[in-house]
Design a protein that fits this description.
alpha/beta, two-stranded antiparallel ribbon
């Protein structure tokens, strides 16, 4: 995005009626200056799925609650036989991609190839993102341009004894 600034006509007229030094100074200040504002980084979220209808709704609901919405959300259906694909299509912000070759590697790669964002976030269907996740990812990459990858902590929520898993994961 390019932004330009000009001085007001009133400032130019005032300077004209003052001495020539002020006029020249005003002319110099009244030039249009163009500079480029850095484009905000965009985030594409890729979710490879196989028969994950029971979990995908909570995941996509969390994506929908992002304080800064992602640029793109890609759900890659890897030959699901349940309602996973139709559930994904019921969210208007989701792009559904089909991958016929079975396996997470193929589904993930198909999602990466379809992504158009500056940053690609790969999550699972059982992931429930914090509402500020997209903002935190964008901020981290914007503040540290040398950053190539980013990972974060895990909080277990859909397992037996989640407190135990969360405690063990802190070591």
């Amino acid at each position: 995005m390019t932004v330009g600034y000009r001085c007001s006509l009133l400032a130019a007229l005032c300077a004209f009626f003052l001495d020539s030094y002020a006029y020249l100074l005003t002319l110099r200040l009244c030039r249009t200056y163009h500079y480029t504002v850095p484009k905000p980084l965009t985030v594409s979220i890729v979710i490879p799925v196989y028969n994950e209808a029971a979990l995908l709704g909570a995941c996509l609901d969390a994506v929908a609650r992002q304080t800064e919405p992602p640029h793109q959300v890609i759900v890659v259906d890897n030959n699901s036989t349940d309602q996973t694909a139709s559930l994904a299509q019921s969210y208007d912000f989701v792009t559904l991609v089909s991958e016929n070759r079975q396996g997470t590697m193929y589904a993930r790669t198909a999602g990466f190839c379809a992504a158009t964002g500056d940053i690609i976030g790969r999550i699972d269907a059982d992931t429930v993102l914090a509402p500020d996740w997209t903002m935190c990812v964008r901020t981290a990459f914007a503040k540290h341009p040398q950053l190539d990858a980013l990972t974060g902590g895990i909080t277990y929520h859909s397992v037996s004894f989640p407190w135990l898993f969360n405690a063990l994961d802190t070591f």
